Amino acid sequence: MDEILPALPPELEREVFETTALMYPGAIPTLLRVARRVFIWVEPLLYRVVRVSDQVVHSDSMAAALLSAARSAPPGGSLRGVRHLLCAESESWTLEDAKDVLKHCAELTDLSLITSSIPLDATILPVLEGLRIHRLAAHLAEMFSGTHSIDLSHPAFSSITHLDIGDEVDDRLCSQIALMPALTHLMQNGKVPWVSMLMVFGQCQLLQVIIVNYQYLAKDAAIMWATQCPKHDARLVVAFYYNYEDDWELGARDLPDIWSLATDFVARKRKGDINVGDYILQT
Predict the structure, then answer these.
(1) Cβ(82)–Cβ(55) under 8 Å?
(2) Mapping DSSP to helix (H, G, I), strand (E, B) and coil, where does residue 122 land?
(3) What's the pTM?
(4) Strand pairing class (185-189; 209-215)
(5) In sequence order, what E strands does the chain have?
(6) More confident: 251 or 283
(7) Distance of CA 146 to the CA centre of its chain
(8) pLDDT over 70 percentage in the chain
(9) CB 268 within 8 A of CB 78
(10) Helix (H, G, I), strand (E, B), or coil: what is residue 133?
(11) Where are the domains of the chain?
(12) Alpha carbon of 186 to those of 166, 212, 235: distances in Å?
């Protein structure tokens, strides 16, 4: 590539290109061809948000590129810039492939495996333990190779602040949630038994936001469930998904998503702008 002389101070020029890349990620391949210095600044942002999914054009090529980079990385080397990774449908990845990639994602803070076509097992736990993930979405029973083996005191969960549970919630799983030292935001799917929800209310005082999410088509069932609440708790939010993966990407790109909207909703309840017994998040 031809080197174009800078017209601005280097710090300002870098900020301009990085801001453009973050606001318009689709423009990154073009920006990479501007100049060598721009390539060095912007190239890590190309992999900042990686969504391996059949809902995304060229997802297979991105997955293959990421796996190739992981396999060719030197011992102890890392994939620069990978912060958010969603693994959904991928014909090209196995569990071993996913673990190879994760081992090299030293900067990863957000991992979603909840719609993954990759069967999980307990061998992924040591890999997660080597990372410092803050947001995790997964089916815990798969991850621990069985419901009765789930142990959220495992070191792999010590840094997680936001947990999205894909499993059916029962009393045993609820009792495990309190074992996570950093957890502030919890998401559970579908109709959670109220006896289990009351256990979360009582045992998990560090939780700031507790979301129960439904598919949008099940809105009537969600409203019915919320009206049966035996004890008001301002932290509870009932929310709806139109498309899980799209919402995940919004959050990964620092745009309003189900987590941020629910957090704001709870804050407004605590301020008195919304009644503490209002649980339905209107989006």
Answers:
(1) no
(2) helix
(3) 0.85
(4) parallel
(5) 49-52, 84-87, 110-112, 135-138, 162-165, 185-189, 209-215, 236-241
(6) 251
(7) 22
(8) 84
(9) no
(10) coil
(11) 1-46, 47-271
(12) 11, 9, 10
Q: How many helices (H) and strands (E) does the chain have?
A: 12, 8
Secondary structure letter of residue 217 according to DSSP = G
Cα–Cα distances (Å) from 146 to 112, 127, 173, 272, in that order, read 19, 18, 12, 42
Q: Flag whether pLDDT at 91 surpasses 60.
A: yes
- What gap in Å lies between CA 55 and CA 245, rounded to an integer? 8
- How confident is residue 229, by pLDDT bands cut at 50, 70 and 90? confident
Residue 2 reports pLDDT greater than 60: no
AA identity, residue 9? P
- What is the Cα–Cα distance from 201 to 230, expressed in whole angstroms? 11
Write out the CATH class of domain 47-271. alpha beta
Tell me how far apart the terminal alpha carbons of the chain are, to the nearest angstrom: 46
Tokens coding 10: 């280097």
Q: Which residues of 81-107 are buried (b: 16+ CB within 10 A; e: fewer)?
A: bbbbbbbbbbeebeeebbbbbbbbbee
Number of residues that make up the chain = 283
Edge-to-edge strands, sheet with 135-138: 49-52, 84-87, 110-112, 135-138, 162-165, 185-189, 209-215, 236-241
C-alpha distances out from residue 194 to 6, 175, 259, Å? 62, 14, 22
Tokens of 212: 């129960």
Phi, psi dihedrals of residue 119, rounded to the nearest 5°: -65, 125
Q: Which two tokens stand for residue 220?
A: 């009537």
Closest CA to 281 of 262, 264, 267, 263: 262
The pair of structure tokens assigned to 84 is: 């958010």
